[in-house]
Amino acid sequence: MSTPGTPVSGLVWRLSTRWRTRIDRAITPLGLTHAQYAVVAPLLSMQRSGTRPSQRELADFTGLEPLYISKLARALERAGLVERVDNPRDSRAVLLSLTERGRDIAEQAVDRVLRLQGELTAPLGGTDDPRTLALVRALRTLLDTPEEP
């Protein structure tokens, strides 16, 4: 149990650890790690909207470091889930897309995580409850604040 003096960082870390463990349990049977999910889920979303992002664009979209996206994309390519091709407009850039198998696994993973999100936010009234929406807004505000160098 926390007290009023408990640092926010400790609470965020504990909640993140708890939720990450639950997400890992949900997607591991699909052959995905949590880090890989952080690539295939947004890639699925972007692909559905007709976008074939570069690694840099996906990094910007997810907030992850480009080098991290590159390493994850290579591992996902080896697993047959992602296709990486040179960008014809920029020889330094690599475009990403999910393979057919990758789309199938990403769709299953997203479905599992969305169901789990409902369970995890149930104590606040569920995903559409004003308290959950306020939490999401607060977390986005904190994440959107630029880091100091």
Give the gist of this structure.
The protein is mainly alpha-helical and 149 residues long.
Write the layout of secondary structure elements.
Layout: H1 8-27, H2 34-48, H3 55-62, H4 66-78, E1 82-87, E2 90-98, H5 100-120, H6 130-144
Antiparallel strand pairs: 1-2
Helix pairs in contact: 1-5, 2-5, 3-4
What does it look like?
The protein is mainly alpha-helical. It has a single domain (14-143), classed as Winged helix-like DNA-binding domain superfamily/Winged helix DNA-binding domain (Arc Repressor Mutant, subunit A, Orthogonal Bundle). Helix content is 62%, strand content 10%. The protein has helices at residues 8-27, 34-48, 55-62, 66-78, 100-120, 130-144, and strands spanning 82-87, 90-98. The protein has a two-stranded antiparallel ribbon. α1 (8-27) crosses α5 and α2 packs across α5 (100-120). It is globular, with a radius of gyration of 17 Å. The mean pLDDT is 92.
